[in-house]
């Protein structure tokens, strides 16, 4: 019965939070520096995640340092230098500190007012083995039956004006540098990338939406300027498994 109720609730949220109208993507700077790789990208599929919780155009990104070690000098304080490989069975899980995304600075893409935060959920072990992925699926279903913060983990919601709100999720526990009501400038550090909430391994979940509450808002499209590994500059959102470096505003 609980499973049926959960599936019905998820379906209702998905239908209710479909975008109401087509909108042009909003151009904003990526909320990080350095080389990252895209996953669950709206450039590859829409909805990229699901319509529920305003995730229609959300993207997941993981810090992915260059093999030659070249970086931008703004690395996190805790993360490793290379991403551990995915395993079938062993190790079942790893500590989040073993991943280069962990501890990377998360930045405000535009000036705005912080409207909501959560920062005390633990950074759990990763779910990157086959048993871990299966556990993540069950865990995600259970989290979905509770409050949105159980899915988002530690997070910040930033009101960027004109009805546009940005969500930064799966942040590191204890790393938040802002509180509700704070006004922050573009480029200000909000927190660190972590592994809280419904997360397989340390990464940043980012999305735009048309209201401050993920339970009722609708997702909004966005686009970034970035360069790929061949040095080509693009405007849009990198597709799944694309490694890229943000082009910072001049």
UniProtKB/TrEMBL annotation:
Pfam family, one: Peptidase_M23
Signal peptide range in chain numbering: none
InterPro entries per record: Cell_wall_metabolism_enzyme (IPR050570), Dup_hybrid_motif (IPR011055), M23ase_b-sheet_dom (IPR016047)
The organism's place on the tree of life at top rank: Bacteria
Entry's Gene Ontology molecular function annotations: metalloendopeptidase activity
Domain M23ase beta-sheet core: 139-210
Name this polypeptide is given: Peptidase M23
């Amino acid at each position: 019965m609980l499973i049926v109720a959960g599936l019905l609730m998820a379906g209702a949220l998905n239908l209710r939070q479909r975008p109401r109208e087509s909108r042009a993507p909003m151009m904003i700077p990526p909320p990080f520096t350095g080389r990252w790789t895209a996953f669950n990208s709206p450039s590859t599929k829409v909805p990229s995640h699901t319509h529920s919780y305003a995730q229609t155009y959300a993207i997941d990104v993981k810090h992915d340092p260059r093999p030659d070690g070249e970086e931008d000098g703004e690395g996190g304080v805790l993360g490793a230098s290379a991403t551990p490989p995915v395993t079938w069975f062993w190790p079942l899980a790893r500590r989040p500190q073993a991943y280069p995304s962990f501890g990377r600075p998360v930045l405000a893409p535009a000036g705005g007012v912080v409207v909501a935060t959560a920062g005390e959920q633990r950074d759990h072990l990763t779910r990157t083995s086959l048993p871990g992925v299966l556990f993540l699926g069950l865990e995600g279903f259970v989290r979905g039956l509770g409050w949105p913060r159980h899915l988002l983990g530690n997070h910040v919601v930033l009101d960027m004006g004109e009805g546009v709100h940005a969500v930064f999720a799966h942040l590191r526990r204890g790393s938040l540098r802002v509180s509700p009501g704070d006004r922050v400038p573009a480029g200000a550090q909000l927190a660190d990338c972590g592994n809280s909430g419904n997360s397989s391994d340390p990464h940043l979940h980012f999305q735009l939406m048309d209201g401050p509450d993920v339970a009722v808002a609708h997702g909004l499209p966005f686009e970034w300027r970035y360069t790929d590994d061949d040095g080509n500059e693009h405007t849009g959102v990198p597709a799944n498994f694309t490694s890229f470096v943000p082009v910072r505003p001049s």
